[in-house]
Amino acid sequence: MSESNTRRKAGRASLWLIAAATCAAAAAPLKPNFHTNWNAIYPSSQTDDNVIAGTGSSCQLCHQSSSGGDGYNAYGWQVWQAWNAGASVSNAIVMAEPFDSDGDGASDVFEIDAGTQPGWKPGNTNTIHFKNGSTQNNQSPPSGILGSLNPACGTAVGYCTPGTSASGCQASLSTSGTPSASSGSGFLLSATSVEGAKDGLYFFGVNGRQANAWGNGTSLQCVTPPVKRAGLLNGTGTSGLCDGTFSQDLNAVWAANPSKNPGGGALVQAQLWYRDPQNTSNQTTSLSDAVEFLVCP
Ligand SMILES: [Ca+2]
Ligand SMILES: [Ca+2]
After folding, report:
1. d(C-alpha 255, C-alpha 51), whole Å
2. Could you report the per-residue pLDDT of 122-176, keeping only the tens digit for each?
3. Which of 151, 154, 156 is nearest to 178 (CA)?
4. Which residues, 6 or more positions from 215, have their beta carbon under 8 angstroms from its beta carbon?
5. How far is residue 295's CA from residue 297's CA, in Å, rounded to a whole number?
6. How many whole angstroms separate alpha carbon 117 and alpha carbon 112?
7. Ligand 2 centre and the CA of 287: distance in Å?
8. What one-character-per-residue DSSP string does 84-128 give?
9. How far, in Å, from the CA of 20 to the mean position of ligand 1?
């Protein structure tokens, strides 16, 4: 789908071995290796790669120091608190996803998908947390981390999985252009591999990701309600085939419907709903995968 989903990690294995050795040396012998678990959950993220390549270890994904230890950035503190409260390492990492730990306007999981840092912001704006509950405010991020610490507006990533329609279609979303609360045009949300000749519509929200059941079928409702609808679109393609497509300019939708405009800085989740009357589930409609993007002013 999006470029973020097709990234590959050339040279990762050797870098990771260096990182693991560095962090393990600073930790108690039986302490779980958080980065090993993290990397298993997010194998294609560039977030940890940018830390490792720029600082020589993965530690500053979560820690203030390049050798780990006490002193956590906002994201590391989020994970550590859940783990300290009894969650497994992997669960503690997943539990942090919906939070915007560093307060830059993008959720932790969006930053991880975008390759930015969920625990760091530019400038003397970071808070370091210690196990005894004390904090240090107005801290600089570590020097050397590659890439951007915060996602730029217009950044878009894919998430969630599409349902399978009656004809075996799995509708897939992509975006082009820049989402903008003021430009009036220039941000296309597109769907391909849609059940042919069936009407559909895009819906979107600003309350984060989810993956809830859509009846007893294979589709998932990936946008946390409440949601807004972009308007019904006529089906395209051939009945019984997966050649249906939709493309709609959301900037134009927002310009024509100000009450639906999420506003600059909003992190928006969007998905396609389409008619699927022959579906064998208890739903006569199906859903695509989803996209998430940061709206520009
Ligand atoms: Ca953030
Ligand atoms: Ca950040």
Report:
1. 39
2. 999 999 999 999 999 999 999 999 999 999 999 999 999 999 999 999 999 999 9
3. 154
4. 281, 282, 283
5. 7
6. 7
7. 31
8. HTT--HHHHHHHTTT--TT-SSS-HHHHHHHTS-TT--SSS-EEE
9. 25
Compute, in angstroms, the gap from residue 237 CA to the centroid of ligand 1: 40
Neighbours of ion ligand 1 (CB under 5 A): 100, 102, 104, 106, 111
Give the chain's mean pLDDT. 92
pLDDT one-digit tens code per residue, 241-277: 999 999 999 999 999 999 999 999 999 999 999 999 9
The DSSP secondary-structure symbol of 180 reads: B
Structural domains for the chain? 3-139 (no CATH), 156-294 (2.60.40)
Answer with the residue of higher pLDDT: 15 or 60: 60
- Mean pLDDT of the region 205-230: 97
CA distances to 17, 52, 251 from 161, in Å: 32, 30, 25
